[in-house]
Amino acid sequence: MDQELKDKIQTLLDQHRVMTVATLRPDGWPQATTVGYVNEGLTLYFLCGLDSQKAANIARDDRVSLTIDHDAPQVMEITGLSMAARAQPVTDRAEAEKVLKMLPDKYPPQASLPGPMPTPDQVRIFRVMPTVISVLDYSKGFGHTDLVTC
User: Fold this and answer.
1) How many CB atoms are closer than 10 A to CB 144?
2) Which residue in 53, 63, 65, 107 could disulfide with 22, CB within 3.0 to 4.6 Å?
């Protein structure tokens, strides 16, 4: 991957904080859900409930697809990412605590939170490692994408 494209991916990851992640349900239907995320380079992290359908789906099949984008005022300003990736549960407590400390930094200061941040024992944290990234940039032409294999 060339440096210009890597910088574009990194910028898009850093500019956003919400993604749609799709997992595979036991009946074969995809399940797409919106989650907050943080990233460290191209590695993404998100959390969900311990007994969530997402967590059960990933435990059975770690392949996920995701999108990161935003609503652009003009069609030719659309940019975003879509990825094929593998999601693995974070089991190392130090890594889990680091991720939980990164999450509030992704949001502007909050007047108040409804409660304390969860602990690693109260949530399931997933590390998402992309295998293929599609970089969408309509400024280069309608529907233009650059495909990157990681």
Assistant:
1) 14
2) 65
Minimal CA–CA distance to 64: which of 48, 87, 80, 81? 87
In this structure, of 29-33, 64-68, 136-140, the range with the lowest mean pLDDT score is 136-140
18 in Cβ contact with 107 (< 8 Å): no
Spatial separation of the C-alpha atoms in residues 19 and 32, rounded to whole Å: 10
Q: What is the pTM of this model?
A: 0.91
Helix residue spans in the chain (DSSP H): 3-15, 53-60, 93-105
Give residues with Cβ within 8 angstroms of 29, minimum separation 6. none
CA distances from 30 to 25, 40, 67, 122, 138 (A): 6, 27, 14, 26, 27
